[in-house]
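Project outcomes to date are best conveyed with an example. Our students and postdoctoral researchers have been running inverse folding experiments weekly, and each run begins with a structure described purely in tokens. The record below, which covers 165 residues, was selected by the lab manager from last quarter's runs and is presented without edits.
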């Protein structure tokens, strides 16, 4: 499934990153873009799933930030993207929160990849971490794909798209 992923300069706000990415991806002016966030649990616009409209038309987007690194993603289907610091995941690792029964991750890099892949899937589903990562079994996904992305040194990143319909 085609998607478009962009990394943004440190200090770029998420709103600006989405506007610039939309301008390039959709061929619109940044001023034609309206974006924000909406939490599915509490309805807050201060956090939650990103949304974007260009000239009033909704588009599938996702974004993630880890330290100074910000990545945005566009697709014609639901999409999720995640970037994680390998060191941060290693410091906070709890396999029971991330791994499903039978899954393993023996190195810090493997653990960060599992986290990033699963969070990308959950973002694509629209639930985010409201659903436990351990409930996602990457090997058993039916209507979803995930792919590792090139990421800055010390980080991992993944993108997930829906293959349904």
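After processing, the design step wrote out the following sequence:
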């Amino acid at each position: 499934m085609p998607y478009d992923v962009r990394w943004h300069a440190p200090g770029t706000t998420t709103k600006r990153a989405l506007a610039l990415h939309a301008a390039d991806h959709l061929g619109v002016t940044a001023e034609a873009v309206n974006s924000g966030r909406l939490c599915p649990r509490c309805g807050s616009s201060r956090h939650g799933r990103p949304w974007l409209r260009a000239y009033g038309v909704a588009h599938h987007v996702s974004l993630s930030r880890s330290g100074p690194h910000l990545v945005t993603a566009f697709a014609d289907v639901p999409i999720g993207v995640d970037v994680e610091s390998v060191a941060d995941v290693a410091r906070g690792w709890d396999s029971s929160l991330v791994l499903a029964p039978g899954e393993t991750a023996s190195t810090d890099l493997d653990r960060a990849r599992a986290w990033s892949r699963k969070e990308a899937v959950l973002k694509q589903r629209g639930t985010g971490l409201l659903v436990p990562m351990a409930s996602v079994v990457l090997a058993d996904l039916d209507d979803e794909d995930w792919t590792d992305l090139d990421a800055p040194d010390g980080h991992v990143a993944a993108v997930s798209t829906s293959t349904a319909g």
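The chain has one domain: 3-162. The chain has a mean pLDDT of 94. The training component of this project remains on track.
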